Give the backbone structure.
Amino acid sequence: MLKNSSMRFLFAAGFVLLAASVQAQSPVVSPIKINAQSDGHALITKMLDHADQINYQGTFVFMHNGRLDSMRIVHGVVDGEVKERLTSLSGEPREVVRDDETVTCVWPKRSLVTVDPSSAHHGIPTIVPRELESLTQSYTVISGPNSRIAEHDCKVLAIKPVDQFRYGYELCIEPESGMLLRSKMIHPRGHLLEEVMFTNVEYLDSVDHINFHPENDIENFTWRKSTRPGEGAQASVEDSKGWRVSKLPPGFSVSKISQRLMTTSDEPVHHMVVSDGVASVSVFIIKPRKLSNMFEGLSRRGSINAFSRGFDDHQITVLGEVPNETVKMIGSSIVHGD
């Protein structure tokens, strides 16, 4: 899912994602020894259960829309808390520092710091399933060939959607550690949307907390902070309870409803999350100060599709890493009241 929606937005809007128009064939490598009962589902379970607890550093590339970005990552567990810092190696300088509570993005050239609530997922920016039950309902998992990424052997798993309302994925996971070394996002029509791949990775015995401090002196930067659901202004929480989605794509359900402040607005925003357990769609509903500021229609930034429309003097925006048919169906069916 956009298992870190704020993180995905940071990379999509700021970190200039990478891309490749032609899928590379997996290299021929020696077979990886996997227990007979360690099928694709078991390997995904291991990735979900153990990957966050690994201490490592490395670099990865993010390919998208014919563009390539390179980033450095340091990831580890310090005093029982998962932490990581990502630094751009190409494009505009910026870094992301993340822990269990917050995601802090530093933009040195703009003298800007944004702080948003953290999500459960750490590591390279990619979509991973939250639970196998949801995965088996809307996707088929196929065990693929062995491969080798950043001098580490890994097993390829194809996650194929059952319909046109979600993307497919290809993961390359190191069986011994559960480390995700490469991830591809694939359109239902078969073409590659984006690919994330480590170019080098080094496992560490431990990581010092100093590795997760921003490199820049940010004391005098402008700070913009959003709140967690339930914090901050709550002026229209009661009214927001009437918002609902009257028609959902098969396999999707509303997993979260909240009210929050965001860095992009000084007004409380009604927020819904619609998910199939892998893909996730965010719905934002706000009453603008000026009705002339509202907009309608479909838009796209790489793999993220968005649909907007006005309804009852409110701006509805639906976006997620799903096909445009999905955001349009959800956005067109949002109503208020019975």
The CA atoms of residues 233 and 268 lie 6 Å apart.
